[in-house]
Specification:
single chain; mainly alpha; Alpha-Beta Plaits; 2 domains; three-stranded mixed β-sheet; 8 helices; about 10% strand; elongated
Length: about 290
């Protein structure tokens, strides 16, 4: 199964799981007036949107390069992850607003043991989805799957807090429910901001990271005939990078010999460094005394 099929399956499972969870959380949350559970249901509904965006973004980014998009459609992953982050942040604001209004209006919570049951079901479902999507992210390095995986992991933590607030409700400590509802919202907002920054960096053509750049130069340094390198540039192409730079070689070499060095270097970099999609090398001569 290739990269895009794995992401497609993960997004479909995410949609199904989150629709189920958002419905049962919403019903129980509104019946009991638990702000923590209502916040959790909003979070799951946002995850439905995230999984759907993952599906659409993955479908677009899987398209091959064409005349209008010479480097492919890989950046679609980051455009859709940006949309996911914005919706997550708006969800956080709505949840905080509702929790504050509940506190001001002194609306009581009608405790129900179904709150506990829903929390346990959510933790089991979300932990299973986290393990699945995290394994796919480690294999494919897809930012959309990364966003989904973090959502699932965060939801395990968030729903555990909801479970705590539900238990506290038995003893009448309803203020804890309000505080946990706000805590959940802050967590959602924090995750949204991190995802936004990561997506924004790629869309603004952030350079390749230093560790990968060092790997490139380690390969370049194997070629002793290369005397100097400059004009190193990198551009994100989806989850990979296009890199370009100029090498300086002995000007007494033939055109074929100097370009064979560049071609060999391009193949090595693209074979050994998964983050590199395309390598473009310009060759300049170094002036030396002519061979006799």
């Amino acid at each position: 199964m290739d990269r895009f099929k794995r992401v497609k399956r993960a997004s479909i499972l995410g949609i199904i799981g989150n629709v189920f969870l958002s419905i049962i959380k919403g019903v129980i949350g509104f019946i009991t007036n638990s702000q923590a559970m209502i916040a959790d249901s909003f979070n799951s509904f946002g995850d439905v949107f995230s999984s759907f965006m993952t599906y659409i973004g993955n479908r677009i980014s899987s398209k091959e390069a064409d005349e209008d998009h010479n480097l492919g459609h890989g950046k679609a992953e980051y455009i859709f992850s940006l949309l996911i982050s914005i919706v997550m942040f708006l969800t956080a604001i709505i949840v905080i607003k509702n929790a504050i209004l509940t506190y001001i209006n002194k609306t009581p919570i009608n405790f129900n043991y179904y709150l506990v049951i829903v929390c346990i079901i959510t933790i089991l479902v979300k932990f299973s989805l986290f393990l699945y999507t995290n394994s796919i992210y480690k294999k494919d390095k897809n930012i959309l799957v990364k966003a989904n995986s973090k959502d699932h992991r965060n939801d395990c933590f968030i729903t555990t807090l909801t479970l705590v607030s539900s238990i506290c409700g038995i003893y009448g400590y309803y203020i804890i429910d309000i505080l946990i509802g706000i805590t959940i919202a802050i967590w959602i907002g924090y995750t949204a901001i991190k995802l936004f920054i990561e997506s924004f960096d790629v869309l603004m053509d952030k350079s390749i990271d230093d560790s990968t750049k060092d790997e490139v130069f380690e390969i370049i340094n194997r070629h002793k005939e290369i005397e100097k390198v400059n004009h190193f540039n990198s551009t994100p192409v989806g989850y990979k990078y296009q890199i370009s730079f100029t090498i300086f070689v002995d000007g007494n070499l033939s055109t074929f010999e100097s370009h064979d060095i560049a071609n060999s270097l391009e193949r090595e970099i693209e074979k050994e460094i998964d983050e590199v999609y395309l390598t473009v090398i310009h060759v300049n001569p170094v002036t030396k005394n002519k061979k006799k």
